[in-house]
Every structure is written in structure tokens, then in C-alpha cells.
Amino acid sequence: MTPEPTAPAFDSDVEAAIRENHPALITYITAGDPSLEDTKAYVEALDRGGSDLIELGLPFSEPIAEGPTIQGAINRALEAGTTPAGFFDLIDDLETDAPLLVMTYYNMILQFGNSEAPCASNSNSEAPRASNSDAASLRNEPTVGPFVERAAEAGLSGIIVPDLPAEEADPLRTACDEHGIDLVFIVAPTTEGERLDRIMSQVSGFAYVQARLGTTGARANVSTATHESLSRLSDYDVPKAVGFGVSEGDHAAEIIEAGADGVIVGSALVDIIADHGAGGAPAADALESKVRELKRGAVRGGDATTDEEQPEPEHP
Amino acid sequence: MSTDDHESDTRRDADGTFGEYGGQYVPEALMPALQELEDAYERYVLDNEDGFMDEFRERMRDFGGRPTPLQRADRLSERYGREIYLKREDLLHGGAHKLNNALGQVLLAKYMGKERIIAETGAGQHGTATAMAAAHLEMPCEIYMGRTDINRQRPNVYRMRMNGAEVNPVTAGSGTLKEAINETMRDWATTVERTHYVIGSVVGPHPFPKLVREFQSVIGAEARKQVREQAGRLPDSVVACAGGGSNTMGSFHEFVPDESVALYAVEAGGSSLEIDTESGVAPNSATLSTGTDGVLHGAMTKLLQSREGQIVESHSVSAGLDYAGVGPELSHLVDTGRVTPANVDDDDALNGFHRLSELEGIIPALESSHALGYLEEYHDDLGDLVVVTVSGRGDKDLETVLEETEKRDLEAAPDVEVFDR
Questions:
Q1: Could you give the residue numbers annotated as active site of B?
Q2: Is A120 in Cβ contact with B274 (below 8 Å)?
Q3: Is B10 in the same domain as B158?
Q4: Is position B278 within any domain?
Q5: What is the span of the domain harbouring residue B193?
Q6: Catalytic residues of A
Q7: Tens-of-pLDDT digits for all 316 residues of chain A?
Q8: pLDDT tens-digit readout, B359-382
Q9: Which of B147, B182, B212 is the last residue of a domain?
Q10: B342/A contact by beta carbon, under 8 A
């Protein structure tokens, strides 16, 4: 086969966004906090400020990987009535330079597209209170296909699922491959050896390097675990982006200097949204300038790396 | 099916699933800890390495008071015209079956070299059992408990504090068990390297459903032996209440291969089986009877959830049954038809509470009262010889029972007023 000179350098939008904008800034906010209309304005501000990728959280009622900041955002979004259908309508409407990813919990993916009424609605409390056939007839068939299909149709480029380890990910990996969507996995400070190999063989787009043990949330410094994780990952040819606790431009600089291809910032942005309350341009402006600060920090870290090492260009 | 076949099926299979249920749906950071726990489960619990199971059984005897009796309930037997036996887990130290699992896991954590214990609690029974076990084995212990539950279960909060445990209030959401589990998982994801999470039921990611069931299966193992000695044969049915399902699986496990023994898991029907879709509340916790398949707290199982996949708030007069999920193995046994799901509403559970108290001189936990309520309504379906698990004693529930009884016109409720006489 003759190589096409004009062929895209990467078959993944997500990987391209990181490689071509190296060092990359990935930003996160929760969709529907405080409303989906506000989210639209905020995503546009993140895009204007220079985000290279944007993650949108689809809220789930039991966010076990999140710290208090993003839990708060998810509660506000759920109280505002955010649904998967409304979320996808928002994605349909958005036009951004940065590719978009969805971050949500596995049950939200499994239940999407259920046509049945909620459980129990067709059970009859007058009926005998013991029966096997009732239970069988009430079974839904949770499956990942409809969610991934709708995500692809809306133009999402990737999916991140914080409660889906590689061991359980085969169905979603297959569906993502069918629809040309990246599936990003989280690599924790505790991930080593065979499990690390397994994750790195299943990941696409980028590896989400968890900077420290625990939950999401802005922190005052960069952990030593970040440096250790990045050195464990240095032999794998997948872009690495570091998240969990990154809140300032200086963190971004230090992380890029330590060998990351990108930084992920969430809680620091969600804090801005929470501080501004419902609606409006002030929050969007504040988000945009925070994103500029973070991107400048990342670039500063990238310059330091280039000065020291003069690496080969990453790609033609 | 022989017992050996059954055990090789369900005790050692490595993938941690029960049919389509179970699995390990947790943040990546916890996966190595689950592998470590699975390894410890096989070595210490299944293979008795370093005499772990010997020490566990000895401590359950001397500290816990095992074996618990299987008692023929003479007046219930007369009332229902069949042989009714009660498995008296209410007589275990702490007043409930919870110690079987808590002591087992705290001891296991010690064998694994962990330095700190955390646990969630809803009504406070698992929290108090864990605090007792941690004090007994000299382990630092922190319990996460929803703010709402703290306010309605004060005696249990004090019991935990007396035993030296920290009690951390959880204010998120409705401040009940579901939120307490979320927060304990967050702590564990932060401290996993030296901390063990003592999960309180046969729920959560593999290997917890198997590990907890293994520690609780002493209930059914004893009952099976005792009923054969006392009644000369296996029972026609075993009835146990089900919330998360630890006393249920504990009671059933040894009987699963006995195909002639019918198994009834009695859930909380609450005030209604309908979900209020507007408020996102299910005024029941009848997960096995009415739930749909999904992922919660690390496992695929039956859940009370909205069509979109949000978990709904459950409700029961019994705080210990008040949970929107259920153990994955129970979900599987219900789908295969081996276990029959049933439910009893708040009123019938309260009647069951009063009836056992008055007829047999045993004040049962409100959780256990659901199994007794089922017996009253459906004893004709249960055969001639029935074992009912009394999972705990009801002292902890007296305030709730007085309050809830006052609101209702219950056939079995006595007049408890003495002060005005």
C-alpha cells in the first residue's frame, strides 16, 4: 500500500490533539452545573482559553472517585435535572476546536437507551409477594452499545469511566472500536507490572495518569507519586496526561517537565463555576483566563524539557 | 450435586462472577488491593494458612459465643401447625450476625499486615460489630456513618465510641448507608496501602461477596447440623431477611446444594413497591423482587434505579434493610430460581416484631421481623419443617418500634403504657 502523504498523522482525534499541541492542556467540567445552558457557555470559554481537549462529566448519583468539589458539581447538575438525553443534545449543539470526551460512571453507560419503564412500575403489590417469574420479566438487559453509538453520533471523541478497570472493559472497548471512539484508562500510583501492561495495551487516546492516591480535587503541590508514575510509563508509546490535584500553572509546568504530554485540570475549574453561582459571563471569563494560565504553565514546562533534552520531533 | 462440587464452583472460581452478576467495577487505584485480598482469602480463609481459620473459630467461640442455638419455637409451631425452628443469631455477641463477618475480616486484615480498619455502617450494627472486633484485636478503627443515620441510631454511635472507634459523619446526599459506602470507598482509595475496608455485607467488588459469605456461612452450617440432630431431617424451607444479604447468604449457603430445601429471601416492602419517579425515591428496598440489573458499589447486581441509571433512595422501617442494592450471588440465585424473593411491608414486619416478642419472649431486630412477618402470611407454602433466621435482637429498635406502632393500628401490638396507670 502506498502511504498517502496527506493522511492524518494519527487515527485518533484525541491522540492528535495531544501530540500536535504538545504540551497539552485537558480541562474538565461537569455538564449541567449549574445548568446545561451554562455548560455550553463554559465549554466555549474553555475552548477559547486554549484547552486542547475538553472532558465533560455526565453526572451519576454515586460518584465514588470524586472529591468534595466535583461531588458538589454533580449534585448541582442532578438537582438541575441533567439527563443523558439532555447531555447529548448539548454535545450536538457544541462546536469546539478541542475534541470532546465524556467522563461518566459505568452504570450510566449500561442503562442508556433503556426503553422499559423504571423498575417496579409494573409489579402489583396486591399480587402474592413471592414469585420467580416476576423477577425474570422485570430484567432489563444493560448494554454499552446504545451509549457509544449516541456518543459517536454526537461527535464525542473519547470516553473515560473511573469505575471501569481494564479487567471489566472488554465490552466497552469493543463498542468503542466499532464506533471509532477512544477509551481512556486511568493509571493509578498502585498500578504496576502485568496490570500496567494490560491497561496500556487496551488504552487509546491517552493514558490518564492519576497523580496521587485518593479522589479528585485541587491540591497545593505536585506529588512524588506523579514523578514515579511517569517514569514507570516512560517506555510506553501512548501519550500521558496527569490529573487529580492539578490546580495551578506552576503544577502544569512541573508535570510537563517530569515527562508528561499533558495535564488535566478539573476541580480548580469547577471551583470557579461554584464561586460564581448560577449563570453568566463572569464565570466564563474567569474560566477562560484560568485556562490561559494553565496552558502557559504547561508550555513553560515543555520549553524547559526542550532546552534540557532537545528530543527528536515527536512525529513528522 | 455434591457438596464438594458446589464448593469448587463458588469458593474458588477466580473471575469473581455469579452468572452475569458480580465483578470488580472500582477505580483502578483499588484493583491491586482487591487482588491482594483475593490472595489472602484463598490462603488464609480457604487453605487455613498459619491456622487462620482455627484462630477465627476459636475467637468466635470464646469472644463471640458460637455456636448459637437452633431453638424450636413452641408457640409459633402451635400457631402455624408445623415445626418452626429459630436460628438464634440474636444471641451472638453484639446482638446480631454481623460479628461473624466483622471479626473474620479484622482478623484477616491483621494477618495481611494492615494497620488500620475502616468500615461503613447504616443502622450501626455493622459499625458496632467492627468496632468491637477492632478493639478485641487491637486495631485502630474508623467508621463512616450518614448524618441522618447518626441522628436516628444514637445508642449505636455511643457503642462504637465506647469501643474506641472514630465515627466520621457523612453529610452527602440523604446521609444514609449508600453515601456512607461511597465515602468509605473514597477513604480506601486514598489509604489503600495500609488500610483494610471491612465491607458489611455480601456486596461490593470481588472478592468481598465471597469473603463475607464465607464468614457468614457458619449460620447455615450450624443450622443444618442442628436441625438434623433435633428434628431428624433437613427442613422443607429456610427463611431469612435480605437487605444487602449477608445473613441471607449466611443462612442459605450450606443449603443451596440441598435441592429439597426451599430458600426464601424476605426483603423490605416498605410502604409501597412503586418507585416515585418524580422524587427518585423507592419507598421500599425490595431489590430482588423489583430491581433491575446494573452496577453499584463495585458489582453488577440488581438495583433500585431510575431508567437513566441514577440510584434511587430506598426506604424501610428497618434501617438495616434500607439499601438500593443487594449481593450479586443472591441476584444470581434468584434468576436461576434457587432462591425465592419475597417481601413484607412495614406493617407486617412490625406485627412480626410484636408477635415474636409476645409469644416467644424474644425481641427480634426489625430486619429479622420481616422474615417473621412472611411466616405469618405464607406459612402454608413453607412445608412442615421451617428454619427462620433471627438475624439480630431488637433492643436497638425499641424507639423506632414505639414511634411507628403509635402511628398504626397493628393487630399484634400490645398496650405498652405503664406510666399512666
A1: 98, 120, 391
A2: yes
A3: yes
A4: yes
A5: 3-63+98-212
A6: 55, 66
A7: 444 555 556 779 999 999 999 999 999 999 999 999 999 999 999 999 999 999 999 999 999 999 999 999 999 999 999 999 999 999 999 999 999 999 999 999 999 998 654 444 344 443 444 444 444 334 367 999 999 999 999 999 999 999 999 999 999 999 999 999 999 999 999 999 999 999 999 999 999 999 988 888 878 888 888 999 999 999 999 999 999 889 999 999 999 999 999 999 999 999 999 998 776 688 999 999 999 999 999 999 999 877 655 444 445 4
A8: 999 999 999 999 999 999 999 999
A9: B212
A10: yes
Q: Which fold has domain A13-112+142-308?
A: TIM Barrel (3.20.20)
Q: What is the CATH number of the domain that holds B244?
A: 3.40.50.1100
User: pLDDT category, B173, cuts 50, 70, 90?
Assistant: confident
Burial category of B20 from C-beta neighbours within 10 Å (exposed 0-12, middle 13-18, buried 19 and up): middle
Nearest CA in chain A to B182: A64
> Considering only alpha carbons, which residue of chain B is nearest residue A213?
B190
Whether residue B169 sits in one domain with residue B76: no
Please state, in angstroms and rounded to a whole number, the distance separating the CA atoms of residues B172 and B174: 6
* B200 lies in the same domain as B224: no
Tell me the residues of chain B between 151 and 180 that have a Cβ less than 8 Å away from chain A: 172-173, 178
pLDDT of residue B280: 73
- Between CA A20 and CA A204 the distance in angstroms is 16
**CB-CB neighbors (< 8 A) of A116 in chain B:** 292, 307
Contact A168 B23 (CB under 8 A): yes
**Do B48 and B192 lie in a common domain?**
yes
Shortest CA gap A277–chain B (Å): 20
Closest-CA residue to B101 (of B219, B266, B242): B219
Number of domains in chain B: 2
CA A191 to chain B, closest CA, distance in angstroms equals 7
Q: Hey, is the C-beta of B356 within 8 angstroms of any chain A C-beta?
A: no
Task: Note whether residue B374 is domain-resident.
Answer: yes
Q: Cα separation of A130 and A17, whole Å?
A: 56
Is residue B419, in this structure, part of any structural domain at all? no
Spatial strand order in the sheet of B299-303: B17-18, B21-22, B299-303, B292-296
Contact yes or no for B28 and A130 at CB 8 A: no
Task: Tell me which of B179, B212, B245 is where a domain ends.
Answer: B212
CB contact under 8 A, A71 and B172: yes
- Whether the CB-CB separation of A263 and A255 falls below 8 Å is answered with yes
Instruction: For B356, list phi and psi in degrees, rounded to 5.
Output: -65, -40
